[in-house]
Amino acid sequence: MQEFLEKASDLYYCGHPIISDEEFDRLARIYGYNEVGHKITDGIPHLFRMYSLQKVFDKKDLPDYDFVVTPKLDGAAVSITYVEGTLAVALTRGDGNIGRDITSKLSELVPQTISIKGTVFITGEVVCPSYVSNARNVAAGSLNLKSLDEFRERAKDLVFVAYDVQGVEYGTWTSALNVLAQEGFQVVTHFDASDYPQDGQVYRVDNLQTFKKLGYTAHHPRGSYALKTQKEGVHTELLDVEWQVGKSGVVSPVAILAPVEVEGAIVGRATLHNIEYIRSLNLEIGCTVEVIRSGDIIPRVVRRIDLEKNSS
C-alpha cells in the first residue's frame, strides 16, 4: 500500500489524481503514510521549505492555541520569490524542497513588481472556480502546460491566493498578508472562497514569534493544522469484480457488493481503480470491505475489514 500511495501522491501533484482526496486521507491514516509531495530531481530549490500541514479530523485534537481560521483551498501550491521588488522565480511545490520553474506562467497571475525590498518568498495556491469541471486538476494541470499561449487561455479562470510570506518581519501573520493585499495579491484571509474547491479549514497561529518558537516536525509546522472531515464508511461483502471499458478505452475494475445503504443511497457497485489498487488492499471475493461515497456521489472501496480483524 505504501508503494500505491507514493504513486497516488506523485500523480496528485502532477495534476492527474487516481484517487480522491478523501480516499487518500483515509488510506494514509490507516496505513501510516506521511510522505507528501511529488519527488523531482531536475528542479530548482525553494528559498524556504514548503511544509505540508498536519491533518486533524476533530477540533478537540487541536492544541489550545490562539488560531486564525481560513479555508483550505484545493488547487496547486506554488512559491514565488521577489528580489528587490521584482518577480525573480516561481516554482511548483514539488516535494516541498525542489520545484519546477513556472515563472512565465505565474507572471500572468501575480504582480510583476512589488514595493517590498529585499528577498521576499510568497507561498500560495493557484485555484480554479468550482464551476469548471475537475477544477483542482485544471489548476494543477495548467501549470504543467508547455504552451504559454494555452496557459493564457486557461488563466482567465485561474487565481493565485497567497497564504504565507517569508523574508520580511511582521508581528502577526494576518498583518503580513494585509501587506500583500495592499501590493495587489489575493490573500487567503480576505479571499471569498465560496465558489472555489476547498478540502477543509486551516488553523494557524497568528503571532509570528509564537509560530517560530513552536518550530517544525520533520514534515509539518507545529503552529498550523488542516482540519478535515473524515466520513465513516459502511461495511459490506465483496461479491464479485467486473471489468468495464470506459469512454476513453481504459479497462477498469468495478466491485460488485452486497447492497448496503451509504449516506441515504443503496450501493451495490463501487470503483476499484485498477488491479494495483485491488492488490494493495489484498481484496478477495467474499471479503468484508469498507465503502464510502466520495464527494457524496461516487461509491468507493477504501479498505478490507475482515483481514484487519483476523490479524489483530
Key descriptive features of the protein:
single chain, 312 residues, alpha+beta, D-amino Acid Aminotransferase, Chain A, domain 1, OB fold (Dihydrolipoamide Acetyltransferase, E2P), 2 domains, five-stranded mixed β-sheet, five-stranded antiparallel β-sheet, 16 strands, 34% strand
Write the layout of secondary structure elements.
Elements: H1 2-13, H2 21-31, E1 44-45, E2 54-56, E3 67-73, E4 76-83, E5 86-92, E6 98-99, H3 103-106, E7 119-127, H4 135-143, H5 148-155, E8 159-166, H6 173-182, E9 186-187, E10 198-205, H7 208-214, E11 224-227, E12 234-245, E13 251-262, E14 265-271, H8 275-280, E15 288-294, E16 298-304, H9 306-311
Parallel strand pairs: 2-11, 8-9
Antiparallel strand pairs: 1-6, 3-10, 4-5, 4-7, 7-8, 10-11, 12-13, 12-15, 13-14, 15-16
Helix pairs in contact: 1-2
In words, what does this structure look like?
The strands form 4 sheets. The protein has a 5-stranded mixed β-sheet with strand order 5-4-7-8-9. It has a 5-stranded antiparallel β-sheet with strand order 14-13-12-15-16. Strands 2-11-10-3 form a 4-stranded mixed β-sheet. 34% of the residues are buried. Helices cover 23% and strands 34% of the residues. The protein is globular, with a radius of gyration of 21 Å. α1 packs antiparallel against α2. The protein has 312 residues and is an alpha+beta fold. The chain is built from 9 helices and 16 strands.
